[in-house]
């Protein structure tokens, strides 16, 4: 930065995580050239700090980066297991290191400027956005800003849950995993008093797999709670602890809420990732929508259009998510029963496309028809009443999403502990 003032760029990416990395790769893939680009983030992302699992068709862009893929997955409940053929889709696992590495290569080819700083404010005057550091210093001015920093919704949701999890990367002394299939959801885990839990298994090969415990609930468990749950799931899988080595541990928290995320808070600021609505409220799945956003932004810029992606999910899907969350929160619909009925009464490919928000209205009606009618009707009425009440009362600010837990202890109700 010179004494003449902050540099001017055409496009600034604020935040350097998954959404920004996918966007940089997409800009390079679509041969967007001639733009002055900057990336602003206090750290450069490297290595294996997260794992994304998603479904879709074969993809020339992502396939070379995948750690594993499966054409069949299992969904298990206490009453039995169902092996699902996903054709024409496949379930895939992508670790962060190759995504960050590809983004770094793209950043270099794009000639992007990297500024290692936190960002405190984005001042948008309608023509340019001034990106400011925590001390108020102007870091740069940009025609467009893509902001992928995590943030809570604009106001508290009528229902606010969390998808929170811990996973062990397990290496075994002998072959025990089936590399030809993944476990998508295993509901034999101990269910929380309020919420739903499940385990899953993503095998890279017969001796190495990610084994994870996940909860959808309003409460976080601390480290000891997650470890006990994972140990219990390990035992359910029949794995001998004496033959296992934990190579890595992953923790995470993702918002599940019907609170609104604002994808375009000002004329020239566009939010991506969870902040831009890419997280599906009823499941916490994010990657597919985040990848779509990146591709849409790059295609728009390549065509000389504003870098504004389409809404991550149709409005009707966000409404259905609000109803499903209300039913799960009230306990009138049990989580294992809800997902078991979806997969038992629909083709697996339809359910997965429904969870991605890419089904037609007719397919949506078919999926909704397989849920339990009475509690869903009650939840629909309750959601309508809650929307009316929300219009008559002042909006309540949403609390920040709590960080992933790594310490020991019991469980924490985040609605009481987060101010």
Summarize the structure in words.
- With 419 residues, the chain is α/β, with parallel strands linked by helices.
- The chain is 30% helix and 29% strand.
- It has 10 helices and 19 strands.
- It has helices at residues 18-29, 96-110, 223-236, 287-302, 315-330, 335-345, 348-356, 361-368, 373-392, 414-417; strands at residues 7-14, 37-40, 51-56, 68-70, 72-77, 80-85, 90-95, 113-115, 121-124, 129-132, 138-147, 160-172, 181-186, 196-205, 208-217, 219-221, 244-257, 269-271, 411-413.
- Strands 1, 2, 8, 9, 10, 11 and 18 form a 7-stranded mixed sheet that branches. A 7-stranded mixed sheet has the order 6-5-13-14-15-12-17, sandwiched between helices.
Sequence of secondary-structure elements: EHEEEEEEHEEEEEEEEEHEEHHHHHHEH
Shape: globular
**Which structural class best describes the helix and strand composition?**
alpha/beta
Return residue spans where pLDDT drops below 50 for at least 5 consecutive residues: 409-419
Count the helices. How many? 10
Largest sheet: 7 strands, mixed
**How many β-strands, per DSSP?**
19
Beta content: 25-35%
Overall pLDDT score: 94
**Radius of gyration, CA atoms, in whole angstroms:** 22 Å
The helix content, as a percent range, equals 25-40%
Distance between the termini: 38 Å
